[in-house]
Amino acid sequence: RRQDLDGVLVSNRALAARFDQLLATAQRRVVVASPYALDRRLVARMERSPAPDRAMVLAPRNNFWCLRLITPYLAHRLSRSGVRLTTFGCFSHAKFVLADDVLLVGSSNFGRHSLTCNEEIGLVITDPAFVAAFETTVLAGATPLAASGGRWRRAVGRVSAALIDFHLMVYARVMVPLVPALAADRRPC
Predict the structure, then answer these.
(1) CA-CA distance, 100 to 139, in Å (whole number)?
(2) Displacement of CA 171 from its chain's centroid (Å)
(3) Nearest partner of 40 among 165, 185, 183, judged by Cα
(4) Strands 121-125 and 7-11
(5) Strand, helix or coil for residue 29
(6) pLDDT tens digits, residue range 98-114?
(7) Which of 67, 70, 66, 60 shows the shortest CA–CA distance to 90?
């Protein structure tokens, strides 16, 4: 059966702006889920969110080796700033933001690369019944995750995160403008 949803479709630059706006204006809670979202940009947005209840749903064993390097450092930063770390029992490819009673779901990983170098799409849903059903269904399987890694692993992660950010900034400023489909609607990192 078809239900009408109160929603807005966003892509590219509008998606990044909506993501930033949701995190910056949340008053009660923010939950961000993405298997590849761990980068310094996202962590900084989560650290600055005014919402007292902040959580990240992480995939600690994802298929990108470089993210496994930086996860201990960024997870430690999130945990230290009061962000609850959670995970699903199995690898999840879920990508969403739940900010108060607004849901943003789509293809974006919400990290620097996804928001500046990829063609992404998201649906902002404000229908209270849909948002409540989504929360009950999807977040029911999330379990606590402890920040792991000693000082050495966090130090390696910190350096790796800086190098990855630098690489992504260069990629976004040099390579993306050379690809017409990407260059049409991009802002520099």
Answers:
(1) 14
(2) 20
(3) 165
(4) antiparallel
(5) strand
(6) 999 999 999 998 887 77
(7) 60
Q: Determine contact, residues 53/28, Cβ cutoff 8 Å.
A: yes
The predicted model gives 87-99 an average pLDDT of: 86
Is 90 exceeded by the pLDDT of residue 97?
A: yes
CA dist., res. 76 & res. 139, Å (int):
22
Give the neighbor-by-neighbor strand order of the sheet with 84-87. Answer: 7-11, 121-125, 102-106, 96-99, 29-33, 53-58, 84-87, 143-144
| DSSP code of residue 100 | T
Contacts of 84 (CB under 8 A, 6+ apart): 53, 54, 55, 56, 144
Instruction: Tally the C-alpha atoms within 13 A of residue 99's C-alpha that lie toward its C-beta.
Output: 20
| Interval 146-156: pLDDT, tens | 766 778 677 77
**Residue 107 DSSP label:** S
- What are the tens digits of pLDDT across the range 40-84? 888 899 999 999 999 998 876 666 666 667 777 788 888 889 999
Question: Nearest 5°: CA angle at 47, between 42 and 50?
Answer: 115
% of the chain exceeding 90 in pLDDT: 32
Q: How far is CA 186 from the centre of its chain?
A: 19
